[in-house]
Write a structure and sequence with these properties.
Blueprint lengths: L2 H76 L6 H15 L2 E8 L2 E2 L14 E3 L7 E3 L21 E10 L2 H12 L5 E8 L14 E10 L3 H15 L1 E2 L4 E4 L5
Antiparallel strand pairs: 1-5, 1-9, 2-5, 3-4, 5-7, 6-7, 8-9
Helix pairs in contact: 2-3
């Protein structure tokens, strides 16, 4: 083999080595970097898509924010975080004026601890009675009515919920008293009516005499424990009510 051929072979081998080294040193790192950049781009695009979806959700929720605030204000008035009996007395006076009645008395007892309602309704045993005119055919007792399912919330407990027994005395006709009762149940403060009775001289009222007296008893609710609510009641007593007896306080609505 002559010298020229050896040089050509050496030059070819050198070129191959240079190309290989160039690929390993220059090209391959660039390819790895490009692949890594593409993976990062895909990851960023996926994150951006998630953020865009979250942003759309936030924009939707933000559009609902005024309605949610309004609903929260309504609920806060319905079941406040304090006793707020002064405001309730004012509302009673307004409801009385709208129904044509007059509030003559108001009594509030100490707040009581909330206890979840439970039912233990036992279905009566079925009895068979022989029919006297049906040739001895046994009659089956009608099925007992089924009580509705109770709806409770585990978040409402004795540590964050209490009730205040309320008694309101009003003057007016039977129709006016019923109107007052309807307005009271539909008022801004949640009120559960437990009693409704007349203490007047006649059920219909005497147009020429003193209007009938009516007593409405029920419960208002507070979103705090009973001890804190009782403290609120004690703090409101000088401004809203006068101390009564047996753990109760009473007062006549404004203007009476």
């Amino acid at each position: 083999m002559d010298r020229n051929r050896m040089m050509l072979i050496a030059a070819a081998l050198t070129g191959v080595v240079v190309l290989a080294l160039g690929f390993l040193v220059g090209v391959q790192p660039q390819l790895v970097a490009a692949s890594s950049a593409e993976s990062q781009q895909q990851s960023v695009e996926a994150q951006n898509e998630t953020l865009r979806a979250s942003l759309a959700t936030l924009e939707t929720d933000n559009a609902k924010l005024p309605d949610l605030k309004s609903e929260l204000a309504t609920l806060d008035t319905s079941v406040p975080s304090q006793a707020a009996l002064s405001s309730f007395l004012t509302e009673l006076d307004q409801l009385a004026g709208a129904s044509g009645t007059t509030v003559t008395g108001f009594t509030s007892s100490d707040a009581t601890v909330y206890e979840p309602t439970t039912t233990d309704v036992a279905a009566p045993a079925a009895t068979d009675e022989a029919a006297s005119d049906s040739g001895g055919t046994a009659a089956t007792a009608p099925a007992a009515p089924t009580a509705p399912d109770l709806v409770t919330d585990p978040l409402v407990t004795a540590t964050n919920f209490s009730s205040i027994p309320i008694t309101v005395s009003i003057q007016g006709s039977y129709a006016q008293a019923r109107d007052f009762l309807s307005k009271l149940q539909g008022g801004s403060r949640l009120f559960l009516v437990t009693t409704f009775a007349s203490t007047g001289s006649s059920e219909a009222g005497d147009a020429t005499g003193v209007p009938d007296q009516w007593t409405v008893g029920g419960l208002v609710y507070v979103l705090q424990d009973a001890a804190a609510t009782q403290a609120d009641q004690a703090a409101e007593t000088p401004a809203a009510t006068a101390e009564g007896t047996d753990g109760t306080s009473s007062d006549t609505a404004a203007g009476q």
